[in-house]
Fold Glycosyltransferase 1 domain-containing protein 1.
Amino acid sequence: RNHLHAAGHICILKDAFGCESATEIANLIFTEKFDAALAIHLYKGGRLLQGCKIPFGIIFGGTDINEDIRCEEKHRVMGTVLAEARFAVAFTMKIKELAAAEWPDARKKIYVQTQGIKTTPSETFDWYSFLQNAGIPTDVDNLHIFLLICGLRRIKDPLYLVDVFSDWHRKEPSVHLGIIGPAVDPLFTCEVKEKVKR
């Protein structure tokens, strides 16, 4: 977003979960006089841009290709959205190839852009207080903390890693797993928290 603003563009972010219909997005496009749109997730975001009057691009999510594609209605919608999109972005060549196998006419408009994370160091973050609050010993010489960054929802299955890391931690107490992300599925989030407490 900062890059778009720096280039002189106005950027408005809208969460697809908060949108009722494509009509709501069409009204927003008209009211704000948008020139273009970019949606994340071929189904979740893209379905709201179907038939819109401005050019748009799509960023594939893993859920699109790994899950939503199995549902006939979602598959149909995703194919329509992809046909209307000016371009699509996949994070891996594998996702691009899977999408191109489903929708061969879209192959030339799917580009691969690997993901990356940009972090900004915090002047006020206290690592030792963080470890103490998390119940992680600070007197360990070789502390190994692995971070899983994902929205807490069943489809991501972080509980698999919790089980694996628990076994590893029992053998090697210096190994810890941290899970960072929004509580997308509140019930599943409670399940994860309960499991982590044990």
